[in-house]
Design goal:
The chain is α/β, with parallel strands linked by helices. It is 38% helix and 19% strand. Strand 17 (507-513), helix 19 and strand 18 form a beta-alpha-beta unit. The radius of gyration is 32 Å and the shape is elongated.
């Protein structure tokens, strides 16, 4: 009978005030919270409280009282709701961990004892601290329990773009973020950028600290809703485009909701779309205005960077989606200050094979890079990601192209899986060892997250992004661009020169391999090693000439000095050649290959022989000694 009376009262209220079904749901939650809090559902909740100089002492105490009042509505306990608190100004000051206070009484006492620490408003560091420290097991955080972050601030952060990046990382790590703005100095765009979706459920604004008490039930209700199983609803995934966003809860001093305030001028110039990502959440897609792009460019235009875009050009991508991929690349390029001494771009496409679209430094303006991207045509075929990474290492980030004082960055796009995971893993490890930062962006449901983790640099939470479809690529432009432009070049010892080996001195180089002792498998490994050396040589008629020696029977006879002037032919010959006994090969080198009047050997060129021997030489040792004595002097 009591339940029937309750529903009659709710129905009467609905008819009289014409409240929405959503408000009806909240009212029901308020009643449940007043009676039993959130029930016995466990949750880990962290409050981040603004402690900056702009907050007057009594208002800071009102902020603490607000937190204590919200906590009072929860069931606090080790197996129920745990609460942690940190305050922030110029730095982050942790107050207590999730595991520290298991009773409501001890928790509220700890909140009352918090002291204000003055300074600036470093919101980004606070969110980073919450994600990397407070929601860890050693701090009392639990697996398979909702993680909730509640950020309270009275103004704009020191660095909006960094705050946006940190909030995105926090949401991707599974933290549900509430943003509460107090007073007239709050930055509505930033609050929306911090909070989870939908914004009208996770963003609150009040006119003053006195009005905080008016939203405590609403905040507690929404927090409880996060800890509960989702309501049974059926929705259709749609994409809608508007020129405004849903507005946050705005409460005045009397506790009544006001009309939404006018948008910030920057926000008015941003057209937004809501897109459903692979995890089911909504992401507000931004179509960049000139003002927003200029602002990002101020951050990304200070440091040099060499950026290679690796484009999936396989048949699994439709023509329309391939164009969306190119459009995404163009918008990323527009964020950077493209110039010979700033950001430089390269692009390559991959399917069954790899095609270089343009090399680093070929286009030195944003317009030039964008036009080059627009001319890229789809290849078609399967998706060989391992081969793309190998080409990236061996052909794009060579010393003659990449700069030592610039971060080397690759943005790798793919919509499918690779057939050769072993090759992909090997090439990824080599790329990471060569100090290449790799962002892996997976598009659609066919991409394995494990493959993306293999491709990307560590940590994966920073370098791996997944979106539902190609339309949603534009939702991660800000994140990819900002994360990329913040990277620093690795602190490695600079090489004497950026020029390829042998570019300053003429050199005749002979390769000799002890193939009979090495065996077929080890000989192939040796040839792979020599191919990598060839990649780093300045091979030409005037610079380095490479020679090899082969069995003098009716098989490929190796390479005669002076006959080959390109890397591809040298490598091709190496793949097919075979080697004779090491002593006879040394003799052949002495009498033919490195003789001044034979074999293309140049007078005045430096003589170098690279000899790879496997196992004991036995009787060949004496013959080698006799063969090399008359071959000196050479290295």
């Amino acid at each position: 009978m009591a339940r029937v009376i309750l529903w009659n009262l709710l129905l009467s209220a609905l008819l009289l005030s014409k409240v929405s079904s959503q408000d009806l749901w909240r009212n029901t939650l308020f009643q449940e919270i007043t009676d039993v809090g959130c029930g016995h559902k466990p949750a880990d909740i962290v409050f981040l409280l603004d402690s900056s100089t702009s907050i007057w002492g009594p208002n800071f105490q009102r902020q603490l009282a607000f937190v204590s009042n919200v906590v009072d509505m929860f069931q606090i306990g080790h197996n129920e709701i745990r609460v942690g608190v940190a305050i922030f100004s110029s730095k982050v000051y942790p107050q207590f961990r999730l595991i520290d206070y298991p009773t409501k009484r001890s928790l509220q006492k700890a909140i009352r004892l918090i002291q204000q620490r003055h300074g600036d408003t470093n919101t980004a560091s606070a969110i980073r601290h919450m994600r990397k420290r407070m929601f860890k097991k050693r701090q009392g955080a639990r697996r398979n329990v909702p993680h909730v972050g509640i950020i309270v601030t009275d103004g704009r952060s020191d660095n909006t773009l960094t705050t946006l990046l940190e909030a995105n990382l926090a949401r991707r790590s599974g933290i549900n973020l509430f943003a509460i703005g107090i007073g007239s100095q709050v930055y509505n765009y930033e609050l929306n950028a911090i909070a989870s979706e939908p914004k009208d459920e996770y963003v609150f604004t009040v006119d003053s600290f006195e009005a905080l008490d008016s939203i405590k039930k609403l905040l507690a209700a929404k927090t409880c809703e996060v800890t509960r199983p989702p309501r049974s609803t059926t929705t259709t995934s749609t994409t809608t485009t508007t020129t405004t966003t849903t507005q946050p809860h705005n409460i005045n001093n009397t506790g009544h909701r006001e009309q939404p305030p006018h948008s910030h001028p920057l926000q008015q110039q941003r057209q937004e779309q809501q897109l459903q990502l692979t995890d089911g959440s909504l992401f507000t897609q931004t179509i960049h205005s000139d003002l927003w792009t200029a602002r990002l460019r101020r951050v990304c235009g200070k440091k040099p960077s060499d950026i290679a875009i690796v484009i999936d050009s396989s048949s699994s991508i439709s023509k329309q989606n391939f164009w969306k991929q190119l459009r995404f690349i163009q918008e990323v390029v527009h964020v950077f200050n493209v110039a010979p001494d700033k950001a430089r771009f390269a692009a390559l496409s991959f399917a069954d094979d790899v095609r270089e679209e343009f090399q680093l430094g070929k286009h030195t303006t944003v317009k030039g890079v964008s036009r080059a991207v627009a001319r890229i045509e789809q290849m078609g075929g399967a998706s060989n990601a391992g081969k793309a990474l190998e080409y990236l290492r061996k052909n794009v980030f060579l010393p003659k192209y990449a700069r030592h004082k610039a971060a080397r960055i690759a943005i790798f796009l793919t919509d499918g899986v690779t057939d050769d995971l072993q090759e992909l893993t090997m090439q990824s490890e080599l790329a990471h060892k060569e100090d290449i930062y790799v962002f892996a962006i997976g598009v659609g449901g066919k991409v394995r997250e494990s493959d993306l983790n293999v491709i990307a640099s560590s940590p994966s939470e920073k370098y791996v992004l997944q979106v539902k479809d190609f339309q949603a690529l534009r939702s991660v432009i800000d994140i990819v661009s900002l994360a990329a432009c913040k990277l620093e070049p690795p602190k490695r010892r600079p090489l004497p020169s950026d020029e390829a080996c042998g570019s300053k001195e003429a050199t005749d180089l002979m390769f000799v391999v002890d193939s009979p002792n090495a065996g077929v498998r080890n000989t192939k490994k040796a040839m792979k090693f020599l191919e990598n050396i060839v990649e780093r040589l300045a091979i030409s008629e005037e610079k380095v000439q490479v020679g090899t020696i082969s069995d003098p029977c009716e098989k490929p006879q190796g390479i005669q000095l002076g006959t080959v002037q390109d890397k591809a032919t040298v490598k091709g010959n190496m793949e097919t050649m075979e080697f004779n006994d090491i002593s006879s090969l040394m003799k052949e080198m002495r009498l033919q290959a490195l003789h001044t009047n034979r074999g293309g050997n140049r007078s005045g060129a430096k003589k170098v022989a690279l000899i790879i021997v496997d196992g004991g030489l036995g009787a060949s040792a004496a013959r080698i000694d006799g063969g090399t004595e008359s071959a000196l002097p050479w290295h």
